[in-house]
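User: Can you predict the 3D structure for this chain?
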Amino acid sequence: MSFVSVSFLCFLPIAFLLYWTLQRHYRWQNLFLLIASYVFYGWWDWRFLVLILITSLSSFISGLYIEKSRNKLWYLSANICLNLGILGVFKYYGFFADNLNQLLSQFGLSLDMPTWRIILPVGISFYTFQSLSYSIDVYRGKLAATRDVVAFCTFIAFFPQLVAGPIERATNLLPQMLSCRRFDYAEAVDGLRRILWGFFKKLVVADNCAFAVNQIWDGYADASAVTLLCGMVLFTFQIYGDFSGYSDIAIGTAKLFGIRLMENFRLPYFSRSIGEFWRRWHISLMTWFRDYMYIPLGGSKEGSYHTIRNIFVVFLLSGLWHGANWTFVAWGAYNAVLLVIGRWFWKSKTNGDERVGLKDLGSVCITFTLVVLGWVVFRAESLSEASGYLQHFAVALTSMNLGQPIYGKVAILYCLLLVIIEWIQRDRLCPLHLEGCWLGRYRWSRWLVYYVIFMLTFFGRGEEQTFIYFQF
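Assistant: Here is the predicted structure, written as structure tokens:
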């Protein structure tokens, strides 16, 4: 079930009303949420429920054994191997089989590995990493293993963030599942604001950009430099509006049920360096890799060589996490190179939470340009397509074949509106949280903004597109 479907718009209010009739009994709340989450997830394909149930039960049982056994590492390793094995078979088997067959054929050998085309379960990368973080935290002693199997399964399958994150930590979400939630009107209203803003970013910004981007990419070989540039920039806003819009809807929906999820984006396109960008973009994934891979490998405490190695390991794996394609690996390597260069030659004394001012626009523009180039590789179906797009852009630019943008004029206006709103409210996590801002000085002005955003979402929506991160 997609957030932007009619079925979800019917499902959410029914689930909301039934859930809050159980507010005195958190165990019944959890059971209801678990059933609702399985209905939500099984809406795509009921067979997917088998995998998430295996992941949930294996992590729950391993947590109990890790806590009470002397051989903690064995149970942790067994659970990691099982869950990564499931992820590997469903997401990466065909990719590695194809590449191994091609590699051996270069030497006149033939392994003839079967290359089955397996349906990729929606959200498998997200809930697999979420379950692994629980097992690792129990192993490290940061968290006590839970004995409540319903609460744990709800933690893994909680429907707002199940399909595309944020990738929650058990230390944050699981305690909320083990306590009673009381209805909070202010939180619910804030959740509705967040959902509205997420719908705007997805339906108006991302979906309008998607139409233009698809048109430009289909004919990039004959396009002018300005058109190709529009294609790159519009995809940059498409993926941001699509993914951060999903996170906004997820966070807002969770608030309706009295649950707080972690922030996943903090205005990443206002970053002043690549390092800052990765502290602002897909925060739940990057902090996961930081805590469970980068730091255990030694982080940046063992000299330059080890730091560079650790950065490349993390970004190559994070690229591969996004999909079984060499373009994602190349995109990860590209960002690793930028991060290594920036670490020593473009040092920023800022962090991702500081407010950006006009004095920072130069650094913001440079960082944004580098990010845009990286998204070309991410968007391409193959490395040759990415190379071809960039080559055609360079040739068109040097030959002064500027032309005029053919597609995306309306999408560009929506992107500018998004940037303006986020710039005005850049010190807030949700730009529609207007209290304390000059736009929210009066109640009528706040409601006017909400009304305009709602009307734009209703009448300005583009052709419906599947969320990009559903494929990951």
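The CA atoms of residues 10 and 251 lie 19 Å apart. The chain is about 65% helix and 0% strand.
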